[in-house]
Amino acid sequence: MKGFLLLAILLCACLLVVPNIPEADAIVKIVLPSDSIPMGIAFDGNRTVYVSLYWYGAIAEIDTISKNYKLYYLTSWHPEVAQNEIDPFALVFDGDGNLWISLRSSLGYHVGSPRPEGMVAKFNVTTKTFTYVQTNYENTKGIMYYRGYIWAAGTWSLFQIDPVNDTVVGVYYVSTIEWSVQYNGYIDCRPLFMSADGDFIWFSLYEWPTDFEVYGKLARFNISDRTSSIILEGFTHPMGIAVNSNFVYLAECLNEGYDGRIAKINKTSLVQEKLNVGGYYLDFDSRGNLWWTGTMRRSVGSITSSGSLLSWGTGISFFIEEVGNEVWYTELGSALIGVLNVNLPDLNNDGKVDIRDIAIVASAYGSYPGSESWMAIADLDGNSKIDIRDIARVARDYGKSWG
């Protein structure tokens, strides 16, 4: 009874004393150069976000506070490739704070080769210079940093790159090719995006040259013995992928409008559940929520760790990145970066702010780091104590949900 009385008193108090705290749920748009087509996005963990500008052959360096940006252009690595024919795609930071970029050339060709020249680039954020690493003339797409190496998905191969010496130390053929009676031709399934868990790199294999058919595959690369295997087949143009301890989430793109769905796959039984959202990119945030992009109807959304499905309709979107209490995403068909403030005090992570969240703060009221009842998640203003401001923060957003 005493606990409920305290809760009631604190709730009444916070409704009367509400500090001036910025509004939650706001979506801010950052306008970049016209027709630049922002794609990959990466946060340095401090106050800078980097975005690849696909049609500009450049990287935008954006200050998260002022929202001002600078452009750094990739230089041509071959005399036959013009600067504006270099298409930067995905981005990732290595362990030393260097930014790695997957690249393709839209028009340029290597001398004596009919294939476009492909590479990855490393951008030193201090000196603002680029270093290029050759990937056997294969265009690169998905890229990630795992176990001390950069891993890049090429046209047919998975590349393992030493980020210190800027050299390729492993090339592993992971594509499949098979004859299709229905298509009356060969279907080539190529790697696109990756997600790692333990000794395995999971990746999507999308179908080519036909699109939006059920030839796509889910595959897995064993880091220990350097072998790859097909885990499941029958996906429609699989794209983004994200893995946690129990499930593999695989985005399927169903049509040219990027309408899609997510296949939720049990890693043990391989039983699937289809979720009618998503279609392009997937990534987990630090709270275990799965974020997705892609579809025309609901282009940005989250599946919370408790299972709640939340979405926003903003236009077709591509990549997404957690930036503190915000989620940044790039939009297709425009030169925009969307900044979605998800700083709702949803402490139990169920997608809404309600009495349960107030109860969490109330149970830690008066505590500080080192005290028995201290809970860091309840310190919403970051002043190292749980007080009336934290209770007020929850009360101000009481009844709100992420969607």
Which helices and strands appear, and what pairs or packs with what?
Layout: H1 2-16, E1 27-31, E2 38-43, E3 48-53, E4 58-63, E5 69-73, E6 86-93, E7 99-105, E8 119-124, E9 129-134, E10 143-146, E11 149-153, E12 157-162, E13 167-173, E14 176-180, E15 185-197, E16 200-208, E17 216-222, E18 227-235, E19 238-243, E20 247-253, E21 260-266, E22 272-275, E23 282-284, E24 290-293, E25 300-303, E26 309-312, E27 317-323, E28 326-331, E29 336-341, H2 355-363, H3 388-396
Antiparallel strand pairs: 1-29, 2-3, 3-4, 4-5, 6-7, 7-8, 8-9, 10-11, 11-12, 12-13, 14-15, 15-16, 16-17, 17-18, 19-20, 20-21, 21-22, 23-24, 24-25, 25-26, 27-28, 28-29
Helix pairs in contact: 1-2, 1-3, 2-3
The number of helical runs is: 3
Biggest sheet character: 5 strands, antiparallel
Q: What's the end-to-end separation, in Å?
A: 34 Å
Fraction in helix: under 10%
In the predicted model, the low-confidence regions spanning at least 5 consecutive residues are 13-26, 107-116
Q: How many domains, in number, for the residues?
A: 2
Task: Give the C-level CATH assignment of the largest domain.
Answer: Mainly Beta
Structural class: mainly beta
Oligomerization: single chain
CATH architecture assignment of the largest domain = 7 Propeller
Mean pLDDT: 82
Radius of gyration: 23 Å
